[in-house]
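From: lab user (bench 3)
To: helpdesk
Subject: output format question, protein + adenosine-5'-triphosphate

Hello, I'm new to running complex predictions and I'm not sure whether the block I got back is the full result or only part of it. Here's what I submitted:
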Amino acid sequence: MEPILKARGLVKRYGRVTALNNCDFDLYPGEILAVIGDNGAGKSSLIKALSGAIRVDEGTIELDGKPMNFASPLNAREAGIETVYQNLALSPALSIADNMFLGREIRKPGIMGRWFRALDRAAMEHKAREKLTELGLMTIQNIGQAVETLSGGQRQGVAVARAAAFGSKVVIMDEPTAALGVKESRRVLELILDVKRRGLPIVLISHNMPHVFEVADRVHVHRLGQRLCVIDPRRHSMSDAVALMTGAMAPEQLNEFA
Ligand SMILES: Nc1ncnc2c1ncn2[C@@H]1O[C@H](COP(=O)(O)OP(=O)(O)OP(=O)(O)O)[C@@H](O)[C@H]1O
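Helpdesk reply: Thanks, we reran it on our side. This is the complete output you should expect:
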């Protein structure tokens, strides 16, 4: 099987800091790939490169076997890569439906839409409701409700639903449970599994080892700007992962029968 998203030899320098140092990456169809690594290891830089938020100095990125050269996150979105950022990028004062369609609003058909840019609110609300229901998120009563009135978990749910609704190839999630309580995290983890069941592969960046080990099919261990190794969470333990991540253990020392 070929990777749906593949990167080779990525290099990103910020002045004298090398954030990505000849980094490789592979995401396969239908999987949840976790990316873990110590603070400053270069996880965000990798994700930004894959989602078009930064341009790398060297290296190649392929989506579905085609070379990509994203000039912006919009470019990556158009190619089918949706990213749920850590800071969410939702607009608190806008409604749930408006947030879901932020930047890709549905216009009214005909002259009103084309010339007067009139929004087709009914269509957007209908679609937003459909997506949230599909993902079991309709504990949210009112689609016209402002996002600032939602709980942290519900907000994250809206962001995930938006990514799942528009991501046609890949969904990237940066620390989706970081700011959430136990119950809300659980809901978001279930959502992630739902998105996977719908056939979309997911890249999950997380510092939370129990969450990573619960949902990931494979774990990409990032260290010093590179992919150090990829481990199978069914064969290796969380302490193995932490030891690799921090440099306490080398990949060659992994006990394959652990
Ligand atoms: N815009 C920037 N300007 C200068 N240096 C940067 C910039 N972005 C990242 N870096 C540096 O690049 C390195 C990798 O940072 P990056 O944010 O990718 O790591 P990370 O693994 O995501 O860290 P964390 O887990 O703490 O978020 C760090 O040394 C960081 O200071």
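A quick orientation on your result: The longest strand covers residues 17-27. Let us know if anything else is unclear.
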